[in-house]
Design brief:
Length: 327
């Protein structure tokens, strides 16, 4: 994984005179300090309803799923926070694939938010949209156990990459976007305001055959319990083969998940994933860098699907998942 130190933001509001902003913050990686022991070691996972939300139980496809869930929960409780952090540090914190290349990333520095969070060439999303200077966007396909392009993991759009972002949504037929950051966090710009936030608001990007118009049709909370997840129903209007076309996209913004922190909630991640599970199109997930909070959500989805198929996890699972995430 990569530790980011610097940020490049295309927004004039967030761009210093040098064009580069040194940043010591990280998104879920780096120097973790001493972990606090917050997970209980007892009781054992005798009552799985404490740990498995109803949507997960409905979706499971193997009779062995409950056994695997119990084993996984008990392992986490036995290891505790300290043990889990130590496992991560020893196997994942500095790992990256030996064969990774980043030619497109290096050729498009103005389209990258962070200097040391590269976009690898393998499985990058290649754009084909009128009005774009080239085919590059900082985004990669990520597989799950059953679908090769189940997710697209992306950086938070810059002011200068908003058209490319929406072109990707249309090109890939995305029906759901999961946004895991705020536009500003701790006084720093983390993502552009790339979507119309309020009901009735309209934004337009591009021109001519590449023009995209986005209208906010509705805004609601995910649920009473998850009121901090804001769901917008967006209508995208554009030209396809010269003819008017449209697409409906649901935009989920999780507003209280802090960078480098843990959200004050238990089942929000699984509740969001339950909402988008029915989509057969790539699910677009992003935070600011597209690696920390984004990777966490995709990892949860991957673990859920493995459990639903009754697959037992070995201690090497995290490394295996990281290889899949990176490749």
């Amino acid at each position: 994984m990569h530790i980011r130190k610097d940020e490049v933001d295309g927004s004039t509001e967030d761009e210093p005179e040098s064009g580069r902003s040194p940043e010591n913050e990280q998104e879920g990686e780096g120097d973790y300090g001493e972990p606090e022991e917050v997970l209980p070691r007892t009781p054992r996972a005798a009552d799985l309803n404490q740990f498995v939300d109803p949507s997960f139980k409905v979706a499971r496809s193997s009779q062995n799923a409950a056994v695997v869930v119990e084993q996984w929960v008990n392992r986490a409780l036995d290891m505790g926070v300290r043990g889990l952090v130590d496992e991560f540090r020893s196997s994942l914190a500095r790992w990256q694939p030996e064969t990774m290349t980043t030619v497109a990333y290096q050729a498009n520095t103005d389209k990258n938010r962070y200097l040391d969070v590269p976009c690898q060439d393998y499985r990058r999303v290649i754009l084909n949209w009128p009005g774009l200077p080239n085919d590059y966007i900082h985004a990669n396909y990520v597989a799950n156990p059953t679908q090769d392009h189940r997710f697209i993991c992306a950086q938070g759009p810059l002011e200068s990459t908003q058209l490319a972002f929406w072109a990707m949504v249309i090109q890939e037929g995305c029906e759901a976007i999961i946004m895991l950051c705020n536009t500003v966090e701790c006084g720093k710009f983390k993502c552009s305001q790339y979507w119309p936030r309020e009901k009735g608001e309209v934004l337009t990007f591009g021109e001519g055959n590449g023009k995209i118009t986005i209208t906010n049709l509705d805004v609601r909370p995910l649920s009473a319990e998850d009121s901090f997840v804001r769901v917008c129903q967006l209508k995208l209007e554009f030209l396809r083969n010269g003819q008017p076309a449209s697409q409906i996209v649901r935009h989920y913004q999780w507003e209280n998940w802090p960078d480098r922190g843990v959200p004050p909630t238990r089942l929000t991640a699984t509740n969001i994933l339950s909402e988008v599970r029915g989509s057969t199109k790539p699910i677009l997930v992003h935070c600011s860098a597209g690696i920390g909070r984004t990777g966490s959500i995709v990892a949860i989805a991957y673990v859920q699907e493995k459990m639903q198929h009754g697959v037992v996890f070995a201690s090497s699972f995290l490394l295996k998942f990281t290889q899949i995430f990176m490749n």
